Task: inverse folding
């Protein structure tokens, strides 16, 4: 998570976070064996408390937008082996029941499927957790509602895992600092950041802003959904699975609200 800050005459980039089965109930049963103080104002907290966020997440237009995003991104199948191309047919048959389960607090996400991809150094690998396509859709719907709320709190010079920001923006900002006379750029990496996020602390700090307990509970379920590694289920008692649509937002929340 890149943050570019001016320090003296330096430009310093820093690293900165009973549901329905989704295809086959037997599948799931097999797996069962440098930051500023966050800019939170009274108005921000009050507005978040007044909103019925779960209803916004389950809003038809929000879900449609999330569906299109997941479909556009494609991606590999999750633990239930359902592909993106099968999603529409499944939702036509089960979509309303899924929404009702979420609204009643009975929805349980499936575990993510663990895969490993090579890192840039070519020697080591990075673990990714691939949610099922239905869970990707739900996570995307959550992120679309929560992101505008938390974006108000993030540092202006943060570029990692944020909408319409990226490495090129960080480089451009560093170049602007250089023209101002700052002489250094420091690139840092927080090792295994996603894997070591304290889930209880993350939920606690989210609760300072998000007052709809149903949403907090749903996110907690995603954090504790577990992981399937070579057909074996493992609990996830810490960390944020890197690979789901909600993980980038959660990682930034964890960084900004607990690292100071």
Result:
């Amino acid at each position: 998570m890149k943050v570019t800050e001016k320090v003296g005459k330096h430009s310093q980039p820093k690293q900165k976070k009973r549901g329905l089965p989704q295809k086959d109930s037997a599948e799931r049963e097999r797996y069962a064996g440098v930051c500023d103080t966050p800019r939170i104002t009274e108005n921000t907290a009050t507005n978040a408390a007044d909103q019925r966020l779960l209803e916004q997440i389950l809003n038809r237009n929000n879900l449609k937008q999330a569906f299109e995003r997941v479909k556009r991104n494609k991606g590999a199948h999750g633990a239930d082996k359902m592909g993106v191309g099968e999603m529409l047919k499944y939702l036509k048959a089960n979509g309303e029941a899924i929404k009702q389960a979420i609204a009643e607090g009975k929805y349980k996400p499936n575990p993510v499927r663990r895969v490993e991809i090579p890192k840039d150094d070519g020697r080591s690998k990075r673990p990714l957790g691939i949610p099922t396509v239905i869970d990707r859709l739900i996570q995307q719907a959550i992120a679309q509602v929560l992101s505008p709320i938390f974006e108000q709190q993030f540092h202006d010079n943060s570029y990692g895992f944020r909408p319409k920001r990226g490495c090129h923006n960080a480089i451009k900002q560093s170049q602007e600092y250089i023209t101002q006379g700052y002489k250094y750029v420091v690139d840092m990496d927080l090792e295994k950041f996603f894997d070591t996020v304290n889930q209880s602390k993350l939920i606690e700090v989210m609760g300072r802003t998000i007052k709809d307990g149903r949403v907090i509970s749903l996110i907690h379920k995603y954090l504790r959904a577990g992981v399937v590694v070579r057909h074996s289920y493992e609990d996830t008692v810490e960390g944020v699975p890197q690979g789901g649509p909600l993980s980038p937002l959660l990682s930034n929340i964890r960084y900004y609200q607990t690292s100071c």
In short: Residues 15 and 190 are 6 Å apart (CA to CA).
